[in-house]
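User: I'm designing a mutation panel for Alpha/beta hydrolase and want to avoid disrupting the core. Could you give me a predicted structure to guide residue selection? Please restate the sequence first so the numbering is unambiguous.

Assistant: Good idea. Sequence first, for numbering, then the predicted structure tokens:
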Amino acid sequence: MRKGEGVNIITFDDVSLAVEEFGDRGNPPVVLIAGATQSKDWWPRELCEALAGEGLYVIRYDQRDTGESTTSPPARPDYTGRDLATDPLRILDALGLESAHMVGLSMGGGIAQYLGVYAAARVRTLTLIESSPAGGEPGDLPAPAASLVAAESALPEVEDWTDTLAVVDYRVEAERPYAGSFGFDEERFRAIATEEARRSRNMESSMRNHFLVEATGETDPSLITAPTLIFHSDTDPLFPLPHGEALARMIPDSTLVRLDGIGHEVPPPQVWDVVVPALSDHVRRAG
């Protein structure tokens, strides 16, 4: 592991992952796992610092094909869903950690579920944010809002992926339909997208490749033994509230906290007064 511009670059085989740490390494470690196509920038620095201020050692990272981590050619990812799912374990190994508290958003929630079942000894607790059961028998769950399909088909084409302004515009418009009843904070999302575009090796790969990787297969959440905290909103257009309720019903030692008003997103500042203490309490209760 080497130090570079405030970010640790962890290398293994032919892969490198950009990792950033907040807080004292002696505190309980918390790994933040972003959703599909998202770099670590989507976990806001202010949120990471607030969690560190609660006595947590917070780790955020760029998944493959995002930010400063290893990238593949557009539409040709050279890794699998299993690789993405086990990268948090490689990060723990590089940092000398036997286990950690895993926090996953959306696809990151699927990764967290996978780790909770297949790497249970390395998972102290799980926190699943706007996620959905990755397998098992959840029953009938509502489909994504029809507006999402229409919005995705209306996204502007990016003719030149080296045109930062065009890429940022595209990124902002891609996020807009996932907003909840709080509305879409364009200024905040544009700032995140701008920082992400500035740092990323290849934004075209970032926006395409995660959707093309081979899946890990189903993971039955009912097999999770780690204490699990579930944050879910009644205004998530991709995974409506019954998805979070199904997780709470399936995972034996779980608690559902509703974050009404947010969309399919990392919890925004409006709900940090709920999220930060709930997450820190969840970690502390696990010892």
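For picking mutation sites, this is relevant: Residues 1-5 have pLDDT under 50 and may be disordered. The chain has one domain: 2-285.
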